[in-house]
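During the second year of the project, the team shifted from modelling isolated chains to modelling whole assemblies. The rationale, set out in the original proposal, was that interfaces cannot be judged from single-chain predictions alone. As a representative example for this report, we include one of the complexes processed in the last quarter. Its constituent sequences, exactly as entered into the pipeline, are reproduced here:
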Amino acid sequence: MCDLDEGSNEDSMGRDSVKRISSKCMKCKESPALLIIRVGDAFCRNCFKEYFVHKFRAMLGKNRLVFPGEKVLLAVSGGPSSSSLLFQVQEGLSHKASKKLRFVPGIVHIEEGAACGKTLEERTKIVADLKSIFSTSGFPFVIVYLEEVFSLPSSVLQSIFSLPTEKDDLYKDAVAGFMQSCHTSVKKNLCHETVAQETTLTEDHTHASLLSTHAHANETSISAFRGKFPFSPEQTEAVKKLFASMKTLTAKEEMLQTLRKHLILYTARIKGYSKVMMGDSCTRLAVKLLANICLGRGAFLAMDTGFSDPRHGDITIIRPMREYSAKEIAFYNKLFGVPSVFTAGLNTKAPEKASIQHLTESFIVKLQADFPSTVSTIYRTSEKLNPRYSQTPADDKGTETCLLCSCVLGIELRDEASAFCAISISEELSQSKKPEGGQVSSSTMEECCAENKMETLESSGCSCQSRERRNTTPDFWSLLCYSCKLVVKDMTSLDLLPEYILEEANRRQRRTQIKREIQEYLLTSEDDADTAP
Amino acid sequence: MKMAAPISIHLEFGGGAELLFDGVKTHHVTLPSQSEPWDVKQLLEWIKANLLKERPELFIQGTTVRPGILVLINDADWELMGELDYKLQDQDNIVFISTLHGG
Ligand SMILES: [Zn+2]
Ligand SMILES: [Zn+2]
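Output from the structure prediction step:
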């Protein structure tokens, strides 16, 4: 086809028509195709736009999870996918939209420069770029810095479960309520007004309000930076130390994701949002699915990659971009001028084998290059997954959840043939290798045990090996799922973990200890007979 | 056989791919005259030799772009344009966008 071009350089007028392989848009069958979405599906510019916008509305409509008038927090990293999410919401709320979205959005951005070794100047520049994008949207926004994990309260790790009633009824009620409120208000754009009001408040008072609501508000940290940053240089150092203490990039990426999630959840709670939208694309989720299997999160795949993630109880995480491939998103952003801000992350310029997540990505992307249905096949697998054991309300049933990722613990144990079970058995058999008991704050159990591995228990005098304590104080590791255990084990010292994690760990340990102490006085029901150790 | 005249083209790198080019996103370059018309395959070799600042394997693998990096020729998917065999013309606009996590 392209041979025709030879020697016809001057003919700039007819160039486009000659150059393009003569395939037409498969939808309108008129306009020239601009991109191939799936094998054989070539779309023109207009049809692609229509398809893209429709898919977003359809995704939200089909799932009926977001109620009209509900406050929804958009987690925007500034990358292509979440920027595209923001753009779709903006478009969907605008007056010209045919099927208008009816929720009330806000934006949160977690600034992670400290973990990636960026200078304050670089970070300020990126934040300024993001702020200008966020301001244009007109939605209220919050920039939360990773350093703020050092002033989070431990309550962020406690899920509040409200037992869901019939979902459809709730949705209908919400729709009815919304319609009524719209009618009674004189102005029809009631929601927009409240948004605008909040906007003015948000910018200035964001950090003040974030800090003032915690128990550990650090006054000196604010004055140190004269209000420019809501954290102290010491906290930046603490973040750097925390990440430097992890040996593998795999663990660093997991830890960053965990801390980011906690900051988002916290922001959603104090600002009164009940839904959080994340921008994971289908390509991203396919990578996550395979990587998570490698990371030992197989039992949680449905929640980690599904459309909605109810594990946190009061806040539901939804992933409305999960049907778009990274290619579709990149094209849409390019063709329709969606602004995004590139920020180098932990894995930027890293070699392909640098981490499990990174390696999985290049594996899938390479496979995709030769077999274009790779991503969609993996993605469709994720759709078929159902949690085998649903996440049950935590506190009242005594179901323990992982300290870091909030997934139900012990799911693996219910299946006698699981790898987890095999590992626990072998751990039990080789007690001397395994750290046991001990206070979290006394920390460095791992080191301590590693050093004394070869010595006899008696001579080492290592407190974490104490057999008496083992029976009374549950150890830190039992609060974590298999996968999070691996992440924390990669750290050289537990002391470097943010305080809210250690504090909550202590609280849970104390609670379990008290439970054990009073156990003999409790009447056991049939239920307990099954689960009691 | 007549010599093809040198051609000027616009190159753009995005999605983090620009980091391999000193962070510079847009480049206006002139490809020297040669007996055959330039195609994308030769352009990639030229980029590797003249523009890439570091870690060429993160941009080019084998004779093509690293999987996960999209190529747009005049705002259209290069898959519709003949990919590596596409014959470049004066004032063409070639965009490389990394869709990989972290660029
Ligand atoms: Zn069309
Ligand atoms: Zn976990």
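The pocket of zinc ion (ligand 2) is lined by residues A 402, 404-405, 407, 480-481, 483-484 (CB under 6 Å). The mean pLDDT of chain B is 93.
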